[in-house]
Design goal:
The structure holds 2 protein chains of 2 kinds. Chain A is an alpha+beta fold. Chain A has 16 helices and 11 strands. In chain A, the strands form 2 sheets. Chain A has a 6-stranded mixed sheet, with helices on both faces. A 5-stranded mixed sheet of chain A has the order 7-11-8-10-9, sandwiched between helices. The longest helix of chain A has 20 residues. Chain B is about 40% helix and about 20% strand. In chain B, strand 1 and strand 2 form a beta hairpin. In chain B, helix 1 packs across helix 7, helix 3 packs parallel to helix 8 and helix 9 packs across helix 12. The longest helix of chain B has 18 residues. The chains are: A alpha+beta, B alpha+beta.
Chain lengths: ~425, ~450
């Protein structure tokens, strides 16, 4: 299965991709800015994400929250998200409203600052602090991303600090920061625009040129601190977090080949063999056979720079103590390291991945987002269609090469959550037992 | 040259129709619904059984969910691990589960695997073994889940809320997945009996959506339908009797919590209610949209929260109407005051034309976007079956929305929101928030521990 893709550049550097699908009168508009928490300066953790919130606070010709109102009134959905390396903004709406979405995106890319006020910044700062409380501080294992970043990246690495940000740094963010960040990163030459769905390509091109063509190119962005890291940690890393959680949970993490590389696809297949669905090794062994885990998964972060991360994520059953959990998970990895995977396991993983790739392409928004991703990281949106071929080329031999290189004892970092003292599991177990 | 400073007008809109579908009853009584949606080479199979959690006998809460989950744990021929392997080698996995009104089995496949997947699915659904050891493991997984809720404020608030909305004897008052006590009591033979009485041919609908032809599907599904158990049982008692109650606040203590998880509501309405569309629009304006009153007030005006919303949990019986948010602890009372004020305002005056048109144009416009995937189309068709809605429901949906007026919205709010009955559950730092709550007027305050 291949989707049609057309790509062009505007003179100001904006890279545009179109994918036409006339099945339903729906169109998705998706913008990736090549900026994320990695680009934040010292003392401003969380700023890239706070800035994303400010992009919904209006621009020269749009009032606060009008962006969302106009999209919803048009019968569309929208949102944005911030990650380590990128920030995206997207809308899916009836196709006769394409111009509206492009106009809104262009107005905030070209003319954001006139709408920025201290009051709006203060309110969104409060909203983001509540987002932090909700998703990080008041949520079991909610600090996982922060703790993992600290554990696996060196102190000066762009991926080392918190994405949601510290309360202190959020408090320090100013309107000057907003203006500076906007001028540096929110420029057409640092962005990719994708449009997927019910579009006339010539008309779409005319609209894009009309709305985005006059926005000036940026002056370039400061280089990130060096991101390259050796393929393995070299030493055992370990962090134990006592937290408000009911069950111990381990995140056993490995440095892994960057997203998009040939070796990445072998790593991705390996993560599926280990932890994708109920036929995976971890599920079969730790949940079904040995009954020591309540949940088990494995995944890659899909980072395109420096190093990717390969994570094995297992939650203990109530009777399983912390030491046992850790031993069992290590044992699984040791076995994998010793014996490798079989061709049949690779076949299972590839079959699941292929269905997932087709399934995802059903949604215009997902299509547009993946086009933007490949265009942002590799300047090659066509990789959307080649991805399935890359996966099909993976053999057990290549997965085993990955395992030999990356899953040894010299490349393991353990992030372990344990219930705070007094957070015992005795209550529920006793109740259950007494009623049996 | 276009004016980049001016909001563009929409172009002419293109028509959209919900995918057409065929329905028939197979020999034995199983219904087959097929929707051809050939956008991409992919197909979703969704089997719906009239075997939801509302059917759980008293003391056996959790049996519907456990039975559905245990379906894929083995047949007389294959054990659970072998089944998982077989489905996954076909690039699919079988998901089974139950909610209040039905149990389902769902899988999504590429066309080349359709025949083999349907054959294996037939074996699973007609010949489940419910192995003792796997049943015990699934029971323990539910107990682990309950334990996890004790430290998970969102889930804990959701779990505790319904007990204050319904009479204790009503199924809706108790958690869908069952308590540690009720789940622990379930036996393999009870699960098998539940399956035999409720997963019968006459209570089953097979829905197939995607890149398929009806004739092919009929041939493939008939053996599955023929193999299902026969017989019938009557549907059980009403699950939705509201608790007679006046306003009250129920605090669940989580010491040191940086936020309060708040739920406010009462028993709502059954899905097949004549005021459904008016209530849908009313709720969108109150708290259903990002631009709703409650969200704009609590998030964008006050910065109290990352988000606040209201919703109706539509079921065969009257599921909960609830307002849900999480606010920083020190503004708990202030936020609750705003929520009650918004509820009152909804009942005291007509919504503005702008508010009404935002809600109706959103619901009408977003309609096609809801059915982009084969899985979403299959789920939509399942709702017709589960809630006994007319065949023309999706063709009429946008017309029904457009008929809602400010007057019917006001009437819906006055008829169906009962401020004097609102129950409030807060999972938070009782020591810090209790004092402030006494002056909100949300009723008497009681306190319970998290476990």
């Amino acid at each position: 299965m291949r989707i049609p893709i057309e790509t062009f550049h505007l003179d100001n550097g904006l890279l545009v991709t179109l994918s036409e699908d006339r099945t339903a009168p729906i169109v998705a508009v998706n913008l990736w800015y090549h900026v994320g928490s990695a680009n934040e300066r010292t003392g401003r953790t969380g700023f890239a994400h706070l800035f994303e919130h400010m992009l919904f606070q209006g621009s020269a010709n749009v009032t606060a929250n009008e962006h969302m109102e106009l999209i919803q009134r048009a019968g569309g959905t929208m949102n944005g998200s911030t990650w380590l390396e990128r920030t995206n903004y997207y809308e899916t709406l009836p196709s006769n409203q394409l111009a509206l979405a492009l106009w809104l995106e262009a107005d905030r890319m070209g003319r954001l600052l006139p709408a920025m006020t201290q009051e709006k910044l203060d309110t969104q700062r409060d909203v983001v602090k509540n987002e932090r409380r909700w998703s990080v501080d008041n949520q079991p294992y909610g600090t996982m991303l922060e703790k993992l970043q600290e554990l696996v990246f060196p102190a000066d690495h762009p991926f080392q600090h918190s994405l949601i940000g510290s309360m202190e740094d959020l408090s320090a963010a100013s309107l000057e920061d907003v203006a500076g960040f906007f001028a540096t990163y929110y420029t057409p030459d640092n962005a990719v625009l994708s449009i997927a769905g019910d579009v006339d390509r010539a008309e779409a091109r005319r609209l894009v040129e009309g709305y985005f063509g006059s926005i000036p190119r940026g002056k370039g962005k400061p280089p990130l601190a060096p991101m390259a890291l050796p393929p393995v940690f070299g030493v055992r890393r370990r962090d134990i977090v006592e937290d408000e959680v009911s069950l111990p949970r381990i995140f056993l993490t490995f440095r892994s080949p960057v997203f998009g590389s040939d070796a990445y696809y072998a790593a991705s297949v390996c993560s599926a063999i280990l932890g994708m669905r109920r036929g995976s090794r971890l599920h079969r062994s730790l949940i079904r056979e040995r009954e020591v885990a309540a949940d088990a998964a494995a995944f890659t972060f899909d980072l395109a720079k420096g190093t990717d991360l390969f994570v094995v994520d297992v939650t203990a059953r109530p009777e399983t103590c912390v030491a046992r959990l850790e031993d069992e998970v290590e044992r699984e990895i040791d076995e994998l390291y010793r014996d490798g995977v079989s061709e049949l396991e690779v076949k299972r993983a590839l079959a699941l991945i292929e269905t997932d790739l087709v399934n995802a392409m059903q949604s215009a928004g997902e299509r547009a987002d993946r086009l933007s991703m490949f265009a942002t990281f590799f300047r090659e949106p066509e990789l959307v269609n080649v991805q399935a071929d890359h996966y099909r080329a993976v053999t057990s031999h290549r997965v085993n090469d990955f395992i030999a290189e990356r899953l040894g004892e010299d490349n393991r970092a353990t992030l372990l959550y344990v219930p705070r003292a007094g957070q015992g599991t005795e209550g529920v177990l006793a109740e259950a037992a007494s009623e049996a | 040259m276009m004016d980049v400073f001016k909001k563009p007008d929409p172009g002419p809109s293109r028509e959209y129709h919900f995918p057409s579908f065929d329905e028939e009853t197979l020999p034995g009584g199983t219904r087959l619904v097929v929707a051809a949606a050939p956008k991409l080479p992919i197909i979703t199979i969704l089997v719906v059984f009239d075997a939801g959690a509302a059917e759980d006998p008293a003391g056996k809460e959790g049996i519907a969910r456990l039975t559905a989950r245990a379906l894929s744990e083995g047949t007389s021929k294959w054990d659970g691990a072998e089944l998982a392997e077989k489905f996954e080698q076909m690039g699919t996995s079988l998901d089974t589960g139950a909610d209040w009104d039905s149990a389902i089995a769902r899988l999504t496949v590429l066309p080349g695997n359709l025949a083999a997947a349907l054959t294996l699915l037939g074996e699973v659904l007609a010949d489940p073994a419910f192995p003792e050891r796997d049943v015990e493991r699934l029971k323990n997984e539910r107990i682990a889940e309950l334990l996890q809720l004790e430290t998970e404020p969102r889930g804990l608030a959701d779990e505790r809320f319904p007990a204050f909305l319904y009479r204790e004897s009503s199924r809706y008052a108790r958690s869908q997945g069952g308590s540690a006590e009720s789940v622990r009591s379930l036996t393999r033979s009870e699960i098998d009996a539940f399956y035999r009485s409720r997963y019968t041919a006459g209570r089953t609908t097979v829905i197939v959506a995607g890149d398929v032809k009806k004739a092919d599907v009929r041939t493939l599904v008939t053996p599955l339908a023929t193999a299902l158990p026969r017989g019938s049982v009557a549907r059980l008692h009403a699950a939705d009797i509201p608790a007679p109650a006046s306003r009250a606040i129920h605090l669940i203590t989580k010491d040191g919590a940086p936020q309060s998880e708040i739920r406010v509501g009462h028993a709502g309405l059954p899905r097949k209610h004549p005021d459904f569309f008016a209530v849908l629009v009313m709720n969108a304006i109150l708290g259903g949209l990002f631009g709703s009153r409650i969200n704009l007030n609590l998030r964008e005006k006050h910065g109290y929260t990352y988000g606040a919303s209201s919703s109706y949990d539509w079921r065969r019986g009257a599921g909960p109407f609830e307002i849900s948010t999480a606010v920083q602890s020190d503004v708990t009372a202030a936020a609750l005051r705003e929520i009650f004020a918004e509820v009152e305002r909804m009942r005291s005056e007509e919504v503005t034309p702008e508010e009404l048109s935002l809600a109706t144009s959103y619901l009408e416009g977003v309609f096609p976007i809801r059915f982009e995937t084969t899985s979403a189309i299959a789920s939509a068709l399942a709702n017709l079956i589960i809630y006994d809605l007319p065949r023309s429901y999706y063709d009429e949906y946008r017309k029904e929305i457009s008929r809602v007026t400010a007057a019917t919205v006001l009437k819906a709010a006055r008829d169906h929101i009962h401020p004097e009955e609102l129950q409030t559950v807060i999972v938070g730092d009782t020591g810090q928030i209790r004092e402030g709550l006494t002056s909100v007027g949300a009723g008497n305050i009681s306190v319970a521990p998290a476990k």
